[in-house]
Amino acid sequence: MxxxxxxxxxxxxxxxxxxTDLRALDDLRVSLLGKKGELTAILKQxxxxxxxxxxxxxxxxxxxxxxxxxxxxxxxxxxxxxxQAARLGAERVDITMPGKxxxxxxxxxxxxxxxxxxxxxxxxxxxxVDGPEVEYDYYNFEALNLPPxxxxxxxxxxxxxxxxxxxxxxxxxxxxxxMENQKPPIRVISPGRVYRSDAVDATxxxxxxxxxxxxxxxxxxxxxxxGTLEMLxxxxxxxxxxxxxxxxxxPFTEPSAEVDVMCFACHGAGCRMCKGEGYIELLGxxxxxxxxxxxxxxxxxxxxxxxxxxxxxxxxxxxxxxxDMRLLFENDMRFLEQFR
Length: 340
Ligand code: DAH
Description:
Helix content is about 40%, strand content about 20%. It has helices spanning about 1-20, 20-35, 40-45, 55-90, 110-125, 135-140, 170-180, 220-235, 290-295, 310-320, 335; strands spanning about 125-130, 135, 165, 185-195, 205-215, 245-250, 255-260, 280-290, 305-310. A seven-stranded mixed beta sheet has the order 1-4-5-9-8-7-6, sandwiched between helices. The chain starts with a helix and ends with a helix. Bound molecules: 3,4-dihydroxyphenylalanine. 3,4-dihydroxyphenylalanine (DAH) binds near residues 212, 253 and 307.
């Protein structure tokens, strides 16, 4: 029996040392120490021994069992730490590798120029105000001295929500909101989207952007209008930039003017870009019509004002030499990536 126990220990040592994975080790543990294992089988035969032999044999069997348990648990620990080391090796991250730069977006050219225009006017003491894009006919037309049958409405056909509610065709509607809610002195600009039912081509879009300006105070004259716009154009296009006012007609201003800016290509000499004119038409402006002031509850015998409206797309296209307005709305990354 002694022999058998030694034998079992010997075989078990070899078997344990050659096991390479945890599952095989577990099977081995069951076959060595389990109920049907060899060691158990021998212990069952203890009863047959004489009383003198039994204690020594019992001791030996227990020692062998303890040895096997010890070996199994050491092997178990070794296999566990080997498995962990392998996992750590496989999952290793090289922290010295350069990172992936996240793709940062950038401002749309319309936004770049709008921000610039805002900065220029903020510097002259204006505030920036917002107005609704879905608008009552009253604010878009009627309060601006364009009654229902006025022919000038034809040039600003738009999208109607109801007979009475429409998408605004001009930011001039914001003038009325401001004058209804604020007493003079007023000095505001209002950039935003406007809509007209125009077909899309190189110079037209059913959605475009305007920046409206309005100043109302005592003693405001055409000279203030010209000085303000001249300052705007110099800041946008350089100090040698000149502007020119031409008589025009808008229902909500009197007198009215169209404002031309000196051609950047030829500086007034006349070239292909300005079609020989030397100047390029850029915006509409004028002195706020007394009817408009009175309609908003402002006494036109005390106050006067000037207003202007400029098309943002036109300024952006001049600035960046863009010949087709569609480029501004198509969101082609190859185009947009050029602007900083
Ligand atoms: N609202 C006009 C347009 O869309 C532009 C304009 C002209 C605005 C004269 C003004 C102005 O404030 O005084 O064509």
